[in-house]
Amino acid sequence: MGKTALVFPGQGSQRVGMGLHLLEQWPDLLDTYYRTADDILGLPLSTLCWQGPEQSLRDTSITQPAVFLTSVATLHVLREHGLEPDLVAGHSLGEYTALVSAGVLDWTDALRLVRRRGELMAAVNAQVPGRMAAVLGLDLATVEALCAHAAEETGQAVEVANDNEPGQVVVSGREAAVERLCRDAQDAGAVRAVVLDVGAPFHSSLMAAIEEEFAAELAGVELCAPQVPVISGVTADLVTTADEIRGCLRRQLAGRVRWTGAVRALMGAGAEVFVEVGPGQVLSGLCRRIASEVPVHPTHDTRRLAKTLALAGREAAVPGAAA
User: Is 92 considered catalytic here?
Assistant: First the structure.
């Protein structure tokens, strides 16, 4: 396996049962991560990951620490088998796990931050209801123009939230503006424009109200300089100092996720293989469509995790490792 970039998923990758494949093979993770996380947060996060209910996992304040916990446990397994990253990046929430992998954050500090981040983001929606929608089949510039038109017509905010891949752009804003944007996108030739089942208008100016409070949380946590190169999804560029990273994490709340740019920056830095570390395979699909020439390996189930470790030249004590 060549120069390896670990990529970490964000909200939307959660599913009931995530992480169970890890516990079946490495039961020591129960005490090392899961019970520790439950104790730190004072809630049965482990049970919610493994048993749900699904509705609880849709609660942003639960979703974010649950995805983070699954990703950091997966990262532990990869490292125990000698797979260390050459580069890292994370999609929105996933940036916290990327920073843990790069030695910037202690995982327990990151867990607390992610929990508070989710609580604050969920609270915004209670005060300023909003929505998000995915637009497929239109380029970024076209969607930006449609957002400006919908905002002007409705008098409400709607903005690009995620540049996920060429031809997949997520918008975020107030309900009427998002609904208008979806109609305009269909008229402009979009393959689809569909409202997403998420708990708040993430990565839009509607989140700016919580930036100061979250910045106070960040100020109380020690951040170190990265030990491996980190590409920020906020800037789609390298971040090299603790202060720079702190600023990006603050700006991330209301800022656009530049995932297309982040993946291209990873390639520019020499990435020859992508490994998605955590639940689901959303990023695997995005990376393949952004950089079709670069192999991508998810880790969200026993077979795929074993295959990833085998390709890395590691012996994994999991069924199907030779497959």
Answer: yes
Over range 203-217, report the average pLDDT: 95
- The active-site residue out of 203, 232, 297, 300 is 203
Instruction: Mention every residue, 6+ apart, whose C-beta is less than 8 A from residue 79.
Output: none
b/e per residue 37-46 (b: at least 16 CB within 10 A): bbeebebebb
pLDDT band for position 64 (50/70/90)? very high
* Residue 71 is among the residues annotated as catalytic for this protein: no
Tell me the C-alpha distance between 153 and 175, whole Å: 13
Question: Do strands 237-239 and 168-174 pair parallel, antiparallel, or not at all (unpaired)?
Answer: unpaired
CA end-to-end span of the chain: 17
Give the helix/strand (H/E) hosting 210: none
CB 158 within 8 A of CB 178: yes
Q: Write out the two tokens for 220.
A: 């109380």
Q: Taking each helix axis as running N to C, give the angle between helix 60-80 and helix 107-127, from 0 to 180 degrees, rounded to the nearest 10.
A: 160
Strand partners, 160: 171
Given the residues 13, 46, 71, 92, select the one marked as catalytic: 92
Q: Sheet containing 237-239: give its strands across.
A: 237-239, 230-232, 87-90, 4-8, 273-276, 296-297
pLDDT at 2 over 80: no
pTM of the model: 0.94
Q: What value does the CA radius of gyration of the chain take, rounded to a whole number of Å?
A: 19
pLDDT, the chain, mean: 93
Residue 264 CB-half CA count within 13 A: 11
Q: Which of 119-123, 126-130, 235-239 is predicted with the least confidence, judged by mean pLDDT?
A: 126-130
Q: Name the H helices within 220-292.
A: 242-252, 259-268, 282-290
Distance CA 83, CA 80 (A): 7
